[in-house]
Amino acid sequence: MSDQNDGELSLDKLRILTSKESKTENTQYSILSWPDKKPCQITNFPHPYPQLASLQKEMIRYQRKDGVQLTATLYLPPGYDPSKDGPLPCLIWSYPGEFKSKDAAGQVRGSPNEFPGIGPTSPLLWLARRFSILSGPTIPIIGEGDEEANDRYVEQLVASAEAAVEEVIRRGVAHPEKIAIGGHSYGAFMAANLLAHAPHLFSCGIARSGAYNRTLTPFGFQNEDRTLWEATNTYIEMSPFMSANKIKKPILLIHGEEDNNSGTLTMQSDRFFNALKGHGVVSRLVILPFESHGYAARESIMHVLWETDRWLQKYCVPNTKNEDTDADTSKGIENKAVTAAEGVREVDDHQRMTTLYHSRRSSLW
Q1: What is the largest CA-CA distance in the chain?
Q2: Which residue positions in the chain have pLDDT lower than 70?
Q3: Contact between 135 and 124 (Cβ < 8 Å)
Q4: Which of 29, 95, 134, 269 makes an SS bond possible with 255, Cβ 3.0 to 4.6 Å?
Q5: pTM of structure
């Protein structure tokens, strides 16, 4: 931050902008000047969400059954005590990654002292609903030596999810019958696969802007460099679209109508929803008009939050061990496709509404 533009900068004129934060204090900026090196704080930002100022954050470690070390960040609501309050509904939100070794997969990412930032559609918002949140549990897909990681994708995905679920249950912070899985993009692909191949772990799922049929991305995806024709079985086995008949738990699909990511075109959710509906799966498809891969409009963000909260309150919070699944009792009720431009009004999945937001704003909210 020194004012000098030309020539060598002497140490006594050095000025550096620094930032400081902790688990409970949001980022503040200071100027550090030489030679005294005394920081002068230049910002005093208030806490962005004081209602959650005392949320509990902990970086936890646990192990997959094949010995791979995993990490995650566990968030608990303010004032929550597992021994007194008992287990909570839990939302697990993640995104898989590929690695070439177990050691690389087991590396710790992030900092335990980082301030817990909460974005517009962050899963941490559900701390206000008294959920426990397991954010970013590592889901490593490992291919050592000549082995390709995705050749054992489903096996490793399920093993990582089982380890995460067992850990939150062991800690007493999650009710075993009230655990939801969710993710965005490749995380949505993960969530759909887990509902297909590990239905015993979760009560419901939330999948935003995902791709579910890998034959529609035939020239590779993520870190998969082989084409569909080179690894046909892998593409088929990894596609939750091909396992739609195995999904029994409720799943919420959300997608931008104008997704410009070549790997997650809107038709992915549209076709996956029709496959789910054809097999009687409790499902809901929400299309956000004019939105791309990420969501920007206030109306879209608020609607995503409403849809997600409604789904969790309906299919995660009320679950008990004596209930089988809401799928049998709710068939024909939730199998709907809607657009955010129509607010809470439900329409048939073939009636794709394209009404402009501004023309409906007065009646939406």
Answers
A1: 76
A2: 320-334, 340-365
A3: yes
A4: 269
A5: 0.86
